[in-house]
Structures are given as structure tokens and as C-alpha cells.
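Page 37, continued from 36.
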């Protein structure tokens, strides 16, 4: 009686290992699919957050945490200066790192929504 119970317990202990060893199907890939050969993040270059903050605070010569358009231009922060009015949604005349991150996330959301529409149209 003990041997069958012991065998059953050992079998149950081994089952999760078999389940974990099952192959995972490959995600779809192809032109334009995430990870596929044509995939790219249209114009977006990931930047190290710490490096960006260092650049931001170096450009902020008044050291108040508020970056003005003139400071962004003087520091050579091209995309930030170019889109300053879009980033400054509250029309304060300055932007913070939070404003810039929100603008980047909004832009990413727009690109992803557009890409989703393109993929749905292919169905």
C-alpha cells in the first residue's frame, strides 16, 4: 500500500517539470512585426534615463528644475526645443522632466495606435 502511494507522489512531483519543458510557440514575425526584420521604432532612439536627466539638469542653468526654450536651445537639445510648445501643455513657459516623459509616452501611444490600425486593416 505504501509503494503505490509513494509512486503516485513521485509522479505528481515530476509532472510540473514535464509541463515546463514543453516548447513555446514562436511569436509571429515578419516585415513590420515586433522583432521581425522590418520592425523599427520610427525615429525613436532609446536613451538612458540617468543620462537624459544629467543632460536636462546641465541645461537647466538656473537650477530650478524648469527648462526654458532658450536653455533647451543653448544646450543643443534639438527635439526638445523643436517640440517645446507641444511639451509645455500647461503653457508655463518651461518644462520639467515629467513633461518631457509624458510627451514621449503620448507620441509612442500615437505611433502604436497608428500601427495597430495598419495591422487591423491587413486582416
Amino acid at each position: 500500500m505504501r509503494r503505490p502511494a509513494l509512486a503516485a507522489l513521485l509522479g505528481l512531483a515530476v509532472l510540473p517539470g514535464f509541463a515546463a519543458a514543453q516548447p513555446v510557440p514562436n511569436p509571429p514575425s515578419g516585415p513590420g512585426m515586433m522583432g521581425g526584420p522590418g520592425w523599427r521604432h520610427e525615429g525613436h532612439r532609446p536613451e538612458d534615463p540617468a543620462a537624459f536627466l544629467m543632460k536636462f539638469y546641465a541645461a537647466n542653468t538656473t537650477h530650478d528644475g524648469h527648462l526654458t526654450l532658450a536653455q533647451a536651445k543653448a544646450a543643443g537639445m534639438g527635439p526638445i526645443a523643436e517640440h517645446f510648445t507641444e511639451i509645455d501643455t500647461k503653457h508655463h513657459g518651461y518644462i520639467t522632466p515629467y513633461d518631457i516623459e509624458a510627451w514621449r509616452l503620448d507620441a509612442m501611444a500615437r505611433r502604436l495606435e497608428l500601427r495597430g490600425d495598419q495591422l487591423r486593416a491587413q486582416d
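Residues 24-29, 32-42 have pLDDT under 50 and may be disordered. Flag for discussion at group meeting. Helices lie at 2-20, 49-59, 69-74, 78-82, 84-87, 97-122.
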